[in-house]
Design a protein that fits this description.
Layout: E1 2-5, E2 12-13, H1 18-21, E3 33-36, H2 38-46, H3 50-64, E4 76-79, E5 87-93, H4 99-117, H5 141-145, E6 154-155, E7 158-161, E8 164-170, H6 176-192, E9 196-201, E10 220-223
Parallel strand pairs: 4-9
Antiparallel strand pairs: 1-2, 1-3, 5-8, 5-9, 6-8, 7-8, 7-10
Length: 225
């Protein structure tokens, strides 16, 4: 038990005389004192918030403390006669991807396609990334509106056979920035979620890929982008 005295500049133990602990000898013990139990007071103050905080942490634990399930080996990237207007992008995973891995990959490719379709990967208009870091950022709207537009024309479905996958793309203009965007995203996916052994841009054949397979064949599936 502790006592808070109106004249005392600090917390005072109840078992000691007041004048012994006070620096003010003119104060009298008859002044009002407040007795409280620190443990009870702390519990009273924390009780409305602690359960809510614990519940929020419990619900978001998997997102906050996500364990990496990908591969520590860097994803290999190669190009094989890649044509921006008509090519396949091939994927080789270390293992056959799970349903959640396929969903993540489809969402990422879909987002990539949307950004490209809206002209978000135009290397001719990179005013902010090319401006000096020490200067306050500024944007010239007229300059941005007058650059040659780029767009992502078309994209096919994601086809998966065991640990292999492919997707057909028609990016249109030869805009390398859009490929950098995809490679950066796939690198993170490979590291944190599902290991990707290699990605190959271009080519009509890849590893043990079999043509003319259907959804009835084991290990084959098609996913809409």
């Amino acid at each position: 038990m502790l006592i808070l005295h109106a004249c005392a500049p600090f917390v005072q133990a109840s078992g000691l005389p007041f004048l012994l602990n006070s620096r003010h000898s003119h104060c009298f013990a008859s002044f009002p004192t407040i007795k409280l139990r620190l443990r009870t007071y702390a519990q009273f103050k924390a009780s409305p918030f602690a359960p809510k905080m614990e519940e929020r942490l419990r619900r978001k634990r998997n997102k906050i403390l996500h364990t990496k399930t990908g591969s520590a080996t860097p994803m290999k990237v190669t190009f094989n006669k890649f044509n921006f207007s008509n090519s396949y992008i091939w994927f080789e995973f270390y293992n056959a991807p799970l349903e959640k891995d396929v969903s993540l990959l489809c969402d990422s490719i879909r987002a990539w396609h949307i950004v490209g379709r809206l002209g978000g990967c135009n290397s001719m208009n990179m005013q902010l990334s090319q401006s000096p870091l020490e200067k306050r950022p500024s944007y010239d709207a007229i300059q941005g509106a007058n650059v040659t537009p780029t767009t992502f024309y078309n994209i096919g479905d994601l086809e998966i056979q065991q640990n292999l996958a492919r997707i057909w793309v028609d990016i249109g203009t030869g805009e390398s920035l859009i490929l950098d965007l995809l490679i950066n995203a796939l690198t993170q996916i490979s590291s944190d979620f599902v290991g990707i052994k290699q990605v190959v841009f271009g080519g009509s054949e890849f590893e043990n890929w079999k043509e003319n397979m259907t959804s009835e064949d084991a290990g084959f599936s098609v996913h809409k982008i």
